[in-house]
Write a structure and sequence with these properties.
Length: 151
């Protein structure tokens, strides 16, 4: 769990898939995620050691780089004010444990100040994934307002 943001999962591992392959071989894929890259790597190494003890061969692939949200972010402050201005209420600011693309951007531009925003999605990464249509225009208007207020 995160030490910086109460209630936020910081690092996790999950069983992504199990497949039967030719020659009675079982392929097990896991996924490790973390806001902190070194913690993600530690989790991957822990999973590797468990499988290695069972005699399995292990391969690692690239995952999402870590991205630790900054509650004091300047762009977050701008976004909060823009949301209040547009919708006449305070936004619900929260951090979630997900493979955010922000980590990919941060790897290329290490000092970039960023937040992650979007329309409301339900059942993400499942057959029942859907978007709340009414939130698409709200998101668009919000994004335009943020861009207008960036220097």
């Amino acid at each position: 769990m995160s030490h910086a943001i109460p209630g936020l999962v910081e690092t996790s591992t999950n069983l992504a898939s199990v497949k039967m392959k030719a020659g009675n071989t079982i392929e097990i894929c896991t996924s490790q995620r973390s806001a902190i890259e070194s913690a993600r790597d530690d989790a991957a190494n822990m999973v590797e050691s468990v499988f290695a003890q069972a005699g399995a061969s292990v391969e690692h692939s690239d995952g999402y780089p870590g991205w630790e949200p900054n509650p004091d972010s300047e762009i977050l402050k701008i976004a909060i004010e823009c949301y209040k201005h547009l919708f006449n209420k305070n936004p619900e600011v929260k951090a979630i444990h997900a493979g955010l693309e922000c980590g990919l951007f941060l790897k290329k531009i290490p000092n970039m100040d960023m937040i992650s925003i979007g329309p409301t999605l339900r059942g993400v990464h499942s057959p029942s994934e859907r978007i709340e249509i009414k939130t698409v225009k709200m998101f668009y208007d919000f994004l335009i307002e943020i861009l207008k207020n960036c220097n």
